[in-house]
Structure formats: structure tokens, C-alpha cells
Inverse folding.
């Protein structure tokens, strides 16, 4: 038999075998793809759970990005926790946070909010710019802080506050709302968390300062 004919026959058999193997492989992998797609579709159909509160640092960096887009030289002035309906603040986390950033080049300060859920019409989910005001720069009463000093998150600050008098005060005064303010005050080298028991700084008779760079307990205010 002609050698060329035999070579052609062998090549044809090889092509048929390879094609059959590929077909089997595709057929066997198809159910896995279908199953994976089904899982994805099923997950997408599941209703989203209730909105959960977040820590101050999580909210801060959500707001920092659009603030930096507004002005590259922004300096943080403050970060405060807030509340929205349907989301329970707990353990150093909150449903809404408000941050203020100042821009020396623009001589302006801009306020942003970050919320984990809608509370319409005034509070939308996500980041919202609340407007810009004139700003002449830091003062003794309103100082800026460095993002590099923002190492300790609000949940860790809350634990430190509890360990240094907060738990005892909470036991004697149950049910008081707890809020958080991150700011720079003149008497401390680093910025601080102020953990506040009561409606606000002005009406509270108990709060605790925690260093944002080290997590160290600084002071108890009555």
C-alpha cells in the first residue's frame, strides 16, 4: 500500500480522535458552567439584607475620594457619626457619618455625608456633598488632622472608652445615645476620637478622648 496513503489515513484517524476527546471535554464541562451560572442567578435573586452600620474609617475614605477630586490639597477638619432611620448604631459603628475638609488653595471648606441607606429626601445612600463654605485656614478651635494619624478606627476607640470608665457610666445611665467625633485639639499632639454619651457634645456630661494614632486612652471629661 502507498506510504502517502497510509500517512493520510493515520492523520485522519488522529484528527478524529482529537475531535472526539475535545467534544467529550466540552460536554463534561458544560454542566459545571451551567451550575455556576445557576448559583450566580440564585444569589442575584436573593433580597439584600438590612443595611448595616459602618466604622468611621470606612465612611471617611468613601468621602475622602470625592473630596480629593474637589481639591487635591484637602485637609480633614472633623468626622462625626450620625443616625438614619432603620439602622441601629452600635459598637462604634454608625449608619451615617459627616466629614468636613478644608482646602487652603481654594480658601473653602466642604462638608460630605456618607450613609448606608436612604433617608429621603435629605439623606441619600452613599456619598453626598453638602456644600462649600468660606474657610480661612485652621484656628485654635478648629484644627486640621493628618490622615497618617488616623490609625485607630471608631470601633477600637469605643472598646478603649468602655475599658476606661465608659462601661461603668453606661451601666449607671442605660439607654444614652453614644456618638463619635474625630478632631484635633490643641492639648494633644495627635488627633483624638471623642466618644460621647448623650445627645451631643454640648449637652453630654460624660465623654472620653482616645488617641487616633496609638489607641491610647487620653482623658475622661465630665
Amino acid at each position: 500500500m502507498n506510504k502517502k496513503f497510509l500517512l493520510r489515513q493515520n492523520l485522519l484517524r488522529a484528527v478524529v480522535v482529537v475531535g472526539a476527546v475535545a467534544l467529550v471535554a466540552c460536554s463534561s464541562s458544560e454542566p459545571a458552567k451551567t451550575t455556576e451560572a445557576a448559583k450566580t442567578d440564585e444569589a442575584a435573586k436573593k433580597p439584600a439584607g438590612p443595611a448595616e452600620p459602618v466604622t468611621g474609617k470606612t465612611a471617611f475614605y468613601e468621602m475622602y475620594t470625592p473630596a480629593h477630586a474637589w481639591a487635591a490639597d484637602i485637609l480633614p477638619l472633623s468626622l462625626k457619626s450620625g443616625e438614619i432611620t432603620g439602622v441601629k448604631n452600635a459598637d462604634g459603628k454608625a449608619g451615617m457619618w459627616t466629614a468636613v475638609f478644608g482646602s487652603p488653595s481654594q480658601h473653602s471648606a466642604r462638608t460630605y455625608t456618607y450613609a448606608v441607606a436612604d433617608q429621603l429626601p435629605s439623606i441619600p445612600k452613599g456619598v453626598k456633598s453638602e456644600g462649600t463654605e468660606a474657610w480661612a485656614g485652621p484656628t485654635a478651635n478648629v484644627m486640621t488632622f493628618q490622615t497618617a494619624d488616623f490609625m485607630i478606627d471608631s470601633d477600637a476607640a469605643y472598646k478603649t472608652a468602655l475599658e476606661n470608665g465608659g462601661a461603668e457610666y453606661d451601666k449607671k445611665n442605660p439607654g444614652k445615645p453614644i456618638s463619635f467625633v474625630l478632631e484635633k485639639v490643641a492639648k494633644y499632639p495627635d488627633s483624638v476620637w471623642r466618644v460621647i454619651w448623650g445627645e451631643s457634645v454640648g449637652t453630654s456630661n460624660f465623654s472620653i478622648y482616645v488617641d487616633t494614632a496609638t489607641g491610647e486612652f487620653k482623658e475622661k471629661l465630665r
In short: Residues 14-33 have pLDDT under 50 and may be disordered. The two ends are 107 Å apart (CA to CA). Strands lie at 75-82, 96-103, 108-115, 126-134, 178-183, 192-197, 206-211, 217-221. The chain is about 35% helix and 25% strand.
